Write a sequence for this structure.
């Protein structure tokens, strides 16, 4: 993973250690969340196309993934050391904090007609909306997909597919029932979507 | 930030706020008060027990404890049905899967929406009394939509199961919370979409989670206090059963019993994560003090290699003692199911003819398999199963890595949609799906509360999907009539003493059929999927039929937010 996020890896690591090693100083949740801005963005717009938007993501999903990073069921070289030091209360509070923020609108481009068509066909056959709901807004422990970073969506679906992301075998099974070019089309289709509240 | 900077910013904020306030005064904000006391009367156990003869109220999710969904009113009937028209429309705040059965008590109607909201409405005018918005916890795990199937009523309370696995008792007059109990840990995959059933001071409820590796149950909670009275595990510690090689209709399940027994030797009984949720209301036999319910699929749905044995009591009809929750009998429809063809549609208690032509107390259930099963109530044994209501192909082809085609698809047959019966005609009305799918298997270990299908079901793109409404003679097993519908059916049926049968479709059509012939007598276009079970009631002597039109998440039918009541002038 290249770019500023990598440069910040050391900073993230140091911050993570700092988070854990300050027993006397009671940090507010806003202070704890500052570490996250390094990759996920000061105003919720991630620094790199490979980092996911977490501002406005569904609370249950954020909590479960922090928990899975913490437990080791999900592995990421940046997130794992950060999550390792978090208590259950920290994870719940961070999830609640970021869920309350406003999802940034990244203005990603609409896919070509044939790509959109391919995406919709694959989405229909897998039945994505039965969990992610009809605007792909998700709910609770199911992620919002609409308007997420296109590259992150594609990488994630492929990671489910080859099981390098191992914390949701149900998703892995579903991603194995479609092809990589379906996944590419789906990622473009979802990235452009917005939600009508 | 320096002190000076803080002061400047603070001042700027104050100025900005002042300007905003000046603007605000120019706009009059009118907030209508839509919370008033519902003029309810306490619901007695006597009323609940006599619901089958009560044409004023609709007191149970499925009409009465027997779950016949047979409304005794005759004012709306085959001769005046053409004049049926909307009386009122209520639009909820929630435009998402709508599966609620409206409950009506003395002119007060209770409906629920996705995300566990409850509304109390004036059943005559459609105006709102109160609106309860459940404060949902962050963990909600559901496979098939954030829906809710309705409330139960008893005394001065309204009971609701929530997506974050709570049982909530509300004050029927005001909608305020009387008590709330966590049923199970949602982080492990438990949640509620079903309506509870209240009987003899107990609130009965099952659980979701057969797609999440839970251990299923039916529980009774004290209606006054919310304390647990009894628990029945739908998965016994010894879940292997008899290693059945055939299903009760005689079809070979193609099980590799030797491989299963070897896996059992190696890993022991899989009961802890075997699934077996109970999706909907039990039927209650007050005379014998029993309840009858059907149990959902084993976990993981498609991968049998991790769960050797028959996987009791998944995919079964089960009877328990109402007071104690103790096991009485069962019949397993599909031992060691690897197709997610679980038993969902609520069972119905009705007198049936046995194989000698003698009338006996019976219990019937419509399966995802496409059969209507007819049992003896005393020992759960199978008397007969109907002609198949949908196409069955390659039953029971095992799922493969590439995907194997089989019909019915994993949604059935009959999915959660409740049947209705007309006891005079001896007919049961089932709404079916024809949805060709391939079944893919891929083994993975227990994922601790995450979706655990053990593979995937894929709708075959380009192949025609449709549905049907089938009237089955449960005394012979023959299909009396069948109407094909352009889209798969999800929602449920209502039969009436006026000789009618009501059901809705995904394309927005809500129709009344002649109960005997299946002729379409009346239709109404609701504008969104009519995918909820209808109900009927009377206020001030006038009959109404009511249904939700809000679509469905599981098969992505057009969403809406309407509750529509119809009447004849």
């Amino acid at each position: 993973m290249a770019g500023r996020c990598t440069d910040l890896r050391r900073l993230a690591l140091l911050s993570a250690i700092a988070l854990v090693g300050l027993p006397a100083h009671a940090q507010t949740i806003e202070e704890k969340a500052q570490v996250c801005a390094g990759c996920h963005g000061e105003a919720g717009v991630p620094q790199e196309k490979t980092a996911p938007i977490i501002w406005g993501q569904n609370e249950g999903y954020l909590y479960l993934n922090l928990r899975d990073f913490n437990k080791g069921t999900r592995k990421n070289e940046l997130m794992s050391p950060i999550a390792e030091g978090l208590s259950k209360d920290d994870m719940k509070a961070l999830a609640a904090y970021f869920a309350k923020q406003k999802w940034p609108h990244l203005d990603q481009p609409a896919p070509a007609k044939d790509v959109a068509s391919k995406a919709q066909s694959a989405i229909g056959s897998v039945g994505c909306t039965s969990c992610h709901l009809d605007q792909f807004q998700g709910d609770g422990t199911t992620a919002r997909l609409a308007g997420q970073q296109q590259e992150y969506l594609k990488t994630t679906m492929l990671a489910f597919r080859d099981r390098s992301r191992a914390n949701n075998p149900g998703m892995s099974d579903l991603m194995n029932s479609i092809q990589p070019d379906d996944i590419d089309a789906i990622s473009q289709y979802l990235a452009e979507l917005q939600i009508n509240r | 930030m320096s002190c000076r900077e803080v002061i400047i910013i603070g001042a700027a904020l104050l100025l900005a706020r002042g300007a905003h306030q000046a603007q605000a005064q120019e706009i009059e904000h009118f907030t209508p008060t839509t919370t008033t006391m519902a003029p309810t009367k306490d619901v007695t156990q006597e009323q609940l027990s006599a619901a089958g003869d009560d044409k004023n109220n609709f007191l149970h999710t499925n009409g009465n404890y027997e779950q016949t969904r047979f409304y005794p009113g005759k004012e709306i009937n085959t001769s005046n049905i053409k004049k049926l028209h909307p009386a009122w429309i209520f639009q909820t705040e929630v435009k998402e899967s709508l599966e609620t059965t409206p409950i009506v008590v003395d002119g007060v109607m209770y409906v629920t929406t996705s995300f566990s909201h409850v509304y109390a409405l004036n059943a005559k005018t459609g105006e709102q009394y109160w609106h309860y918005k459940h404060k949902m916890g962050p963990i909600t795990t559901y496979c098939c939509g954030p829906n809710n199937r309705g409330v139960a009523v008893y005394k001065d309370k309204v009971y609701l199961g929530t997506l974050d696995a709570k049982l909530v008792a509300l004050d029927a007059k005001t909608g305020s919370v009387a008590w709330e109990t966590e049923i199970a840990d949602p982080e492990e995959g438990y949640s509620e979409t079903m309506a509870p059933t209240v009987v003899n001071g107990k609130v009965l409820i099952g659980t979701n989670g057969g797609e999440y590796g839970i251990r299923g149950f039916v529980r009774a909670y004290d209606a006054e206090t919310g304390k647990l009275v009894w628990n029945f595990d739908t998965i016994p510690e010894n879940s292997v059963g008899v290693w059945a090689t055939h299903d009760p209709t005689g079809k070979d399940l193609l099980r590799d019993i030797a491989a299963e027994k070897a896996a059992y030797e190696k890993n022991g009984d899989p009961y802890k994560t075997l699934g077996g949720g109970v999706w909907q209301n039990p039927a209650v036999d007050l005379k014998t003090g029993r309840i009858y319910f059907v149990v959902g699929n084993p976990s993981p749905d498609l991968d049998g290699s991790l769960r050797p044995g028959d996987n009791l009591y998944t995919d079964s009809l089960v009877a328990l003692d109402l007071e104690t929750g103790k096991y009485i009998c069962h019949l397993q429809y599909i031992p060691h199911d690897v197709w997610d063809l679980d038993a969902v549609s609520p069972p119905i208690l009705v007198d049936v003819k046995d194989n000698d032509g003698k009338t006996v107390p019976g219990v019937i259930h419509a399966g995802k398999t496409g059969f209507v099963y007819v049992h003896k109530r005393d020992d759960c044994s199978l008397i007969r199963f109907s002609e198949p209501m949908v196409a069955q192909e390659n039953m029971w082809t095992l799922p493969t890595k590439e995907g194997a085609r089989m019909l019915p698809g994993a949604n059935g047959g009959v999915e959660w949609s409740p049947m209705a019966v007309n006891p005079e005609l001896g007919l049961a009305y089932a709404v079916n799906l024809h949805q060709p799918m391939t079944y893919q298997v891929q083994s993975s270990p227990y994922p601790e509360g995450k979706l655990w299908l053990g593979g995937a079901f894929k709708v075959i793109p380009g192949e025609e999907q449709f549905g049907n409404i089938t009237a089955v003679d449960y005394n012979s097993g023959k299909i009396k009539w069948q109407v094909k519908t352009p889209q798969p059916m999800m929602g449920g049926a209502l039969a009436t003493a006026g000789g009618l049968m009501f059901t809705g479709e995904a394309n927005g059509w809500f129709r009344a059929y002649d109960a005997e012939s299946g002729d379409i007598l009346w239709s109404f276009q609701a504008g969104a999927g009519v995918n909820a079970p209808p109900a009927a009631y009377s206020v001030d002597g006038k009959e109404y039929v009511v249904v939700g039109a809000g679509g469905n998440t599981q098969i992505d039918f057009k969403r809406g937010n309407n509750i529509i009541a119809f009447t004849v002038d």
User: Anything to note?
Assistant: Chain B is about 5% helix and 35% strand.
